[in-house]
Amino acid sequence: MSASDSIHDVDLFVIGAGSGGVRAARIAANHGARVKIAEEYRVGGTCVIRGCVPKKLLVYAGRYAHEFEDAAGFGWIVEGARFDWKTLIANKDREIARLEAAYGTNLARSHVEIIKQRAAIEDPHTVRLADGTRITAATILIATGGRPNRGLDFPGCHLGITSNEMFHLETQPESIIIQGGGYIALEFASLLADLGTRVTVVHRGDKVLRGFDEEIRERIAGELAANGVTFEFGVTIDAIEETPHGRRVLLNDGRALEAEQVMLAIGRVPNTIGLGLDAVGVELDMKGAVAVDARSRSSVPSIYAVGDVTDRVALTPVAIREGHAFADTVFGTHPWTVDHSLIPTAVFTEPEIGVVGLTEADARAKGYRLDIYKTDFRPLKATLSGRTSRVFMKLVVDQRTDKVLGVHIIGEGAGEMIQLVGVALTANATKADFDRTMALHPSTAEELVTLRTKDPSSDMPAPDTLPMHGEEPMVDEDAVESQMREGVPAAK
Q1: How many CA atoms lie within 13 A of 258 on its CB side?
Q2: Which of 59, 144, 278, 475 has its CA 20 to 30 A from that of 88?
């Protein structure tokens, strides 16, 4: 729909000014549509206001603790360094306010009207604002995102905070119990431990990060434990009690733990309550998310949805791309859909995790015969800093086609590396493509293009490496370089 629909007040009404909604509104307006967008809280949505952006700023703060500690090995004398929570939070708030203003400016430049009220759907073409105003639209887009899951029902559950409140604590907690084992739980556990908080993670499962490669799941728990995080696996919280000094948590195995704060990080749920979706026949799935087709259209033809409210892939870049595809498809001249099959992602713990593509288990479940390549080494920086943290990399390769199906990394810069690896996998790169790429030395990332020896978990044995025809054994220079990084003398 490129031409304006004069029957309605606007061509597009967007509910929710987060990343997906803002992108959809701007692109639709650039295509000539008349657009209004409603936001009841702050423009920018979860990611900008109380999600990935402020969290990453706190992650950076935590990493300075390691940098100060590491500096001594490189000749730096750092004395008197101390951390101030109030300064960090104030600076974070200032940056978030700047970003919010920038989002509003960009919408205004695209001639999108911002309505700072809650909006609900009254019929397939009508939106009702909190003040009672009704606005008709040819198309309605739901982009209300998600919220922390507070569906727990146990005594004292209201005493636990979520990631939303964590960003606004006036003081840094001396101790905290975090329930959960996903992205949010681990990232906050890691950054708070780095800042000096005593952290205990309570998780009902036996491993963290469900859905990640098994070796990543095992290794990150070990790394976080080495950084001071205590894990309590196989238990849940039965109750939270208030004490003079904080909170007492009662576990389902009968034990009690105490901490200043308790954070509930058990996932997020789509923001669909109170939008009027049932009344107009918008179908929701079992989780309460808006059910949509490949073009983000709901069961009501004039109503679409993008981002976390659809519970497809709850990541900001995905919401942005879905919003862009929606606007181009409905209001532009070149329709397209989003491919959700290959999405790079990172977990900003210390050390960092970066992954893209299939895990080894998922690849085997899909019937692939695999070649597995792995490396585990102490990075060059650690040889002087004395840090024990290691780098782990794993390539999952289709044995028949040599195509790289998945890459999994733990280590400094894993997120930055995996973004570029994502380009290679999107281009259907093979292991041979990785192999013929020149290494950049010395770097951690060079290990991705120097892996030659198959892991024993491969479906076929590694090629015979014995010398042939009386030749002298060749020196594996790649192995030599890895050993040098380990600080181990390399034998030739």
Answers
A1: 5
A2: 144
Instruction: Map out the domains of the chain with their CATH numbers.
Output: 10-148+269-331 (3.50.50.60), 157-266 (3.50.50.60), 351-486 (3.30.390.30)
Distances (CA, A) of 455 to 364, 459, 485: 15, 9, 20
Q: Which residues pair with 257 in a beta bridge?
A: 249
Secondary structure of 206-244 in HEC code, one letter for each residue: CCCCCCCCHHHHHHHHHHHHHCCCEEEECCCEEEEEEEC
Mean local confidence (pLDDT), 75-87 = 92
Annotate 334-402 with DSSP letters as a single string: S------S---EEE-SSS-EEEEE--HHHHHHTT--EEEEEEEE--HHHHHH-----EEEEEEEETTT-
Q: Is the peptide bond before 442 cis (omega within 30 degrees of 0)?
A: yes
| Average pLDDT over every residue of 467-483 | 37
DSSP structure class, residue 128:
E
Task: DSSP for 59-72, please give it.
Answer: HHHHHHHHHHHHHG
- β-strand 126-129 against 134-142: which pairing, if any? antiparallel
Note whether 399 and 339 are within 8 A (CB). no
In the residue annotation, 441 being an active-site residue is answered as yes
Distances (CA, A) of 376 to 31, 53, 215, 444, 483: 50, 30, 11, 11, 11
Residue 223 tokens, joined: 């790394």
Helix (H) or strand (E) holding 203: strand 198-203
Q: Tell me which amino acid residue 384 is.
A: L
- Please, what is the average pLDDT of the chain? 92
Question: Which position among 168, 245, 334, 441 bears the catalytic label?
Answer: 441
3-class DSSP state of 107: helix
406-427 tens-digit pLDDT:
999 999 999 999 999 999 999 9
Cα(277)–Cα(478) distance, integer angstroms: 59
pTM value?
0.91
Q: With cut-offs at 50, 70 and 90, classify the pLDDT of residue 459.
A: confident
Q: What does the alpha-carbon distance between residue 25 and residue 110 come to, in Å, rounded to a whole number?
A: 8
Q: What would the two tokens of residue 91 be?
A: 């600076």
Cα atoms in the Cβ-side hemisphere of radius 13 Å centred on 5: 17
For residues 384, 386, 390, 391, the Cα torsion angle rounded to the nearest 10 degrees is -20
What interhelical angle do 85-109 and 19-30 show, nearest 10?
20
